[in-house]
Records
---
Amino acid sequence: QVQVVESGGGLVQSGGSLTLSCVASGYTFSLFAVAWQRQAPGKKRELVASISGMGGSRINYSDSVVGRFTISRDDDKRTAYLQMDSLKPDDTAVYFCYIPQQNAWGQGTQVTVSS
């Protein structure tokens, strides 16, 4: 059974930083891509960043976070990260870790950026 658990959310001031972690189990972590999505109140879920499996050579970011967020993975720890810098109030949302090829989601972690 695939399990996905996010952590690291919280309250931060505008311009601050947070690092989210995503620990996944129940499958061969290194082989598959990991994605971060977010959903703000009243808005559709949005893809924020993704990183491929098999070494993580392919990385993609949404236009809204490019240059501010960095996605990475540590396959030995079965963990993916989302380093978020220069945070803005518009980044406030619940952030979800998603394993596309396993169709598995975490429970989400709240990120709130105050102005």
---
Amino acid sequence: VQLQASGGGLVQAGGSLRLSCAASGRTDSAFGMGWFRQAPGKEREFLSAIASRGGNIDYADSVKERFTMSRDNAKNTVYLQMNNLKAEDTAVYYCAGRHNDRTPYRYWGQGTQVTVSS
């Protein structure tokens, strides 16, 4: 399985970005995917995840009012719509995938940089 994240960039505070993560290889609609981010000097932070069987989407409290995760099974792609971005959202954003919700994420994308200017 390979994950390819894209969509990062430089945006002003209050702006929006949409990240994409395309999965290839042995994936299907049961493949669980998530979004994480890591800011300089900080630990990796969970943002959102869609369960292996689809349906429920979980969000971190810090972003649930501003970020929306979605999935296009036909394209094997998940998205992260980020609105009202803040300077503290500046980080490298990663997508991750797994075949089973009871296991750690096994596959990681290369990361895409999001920079929010204040």
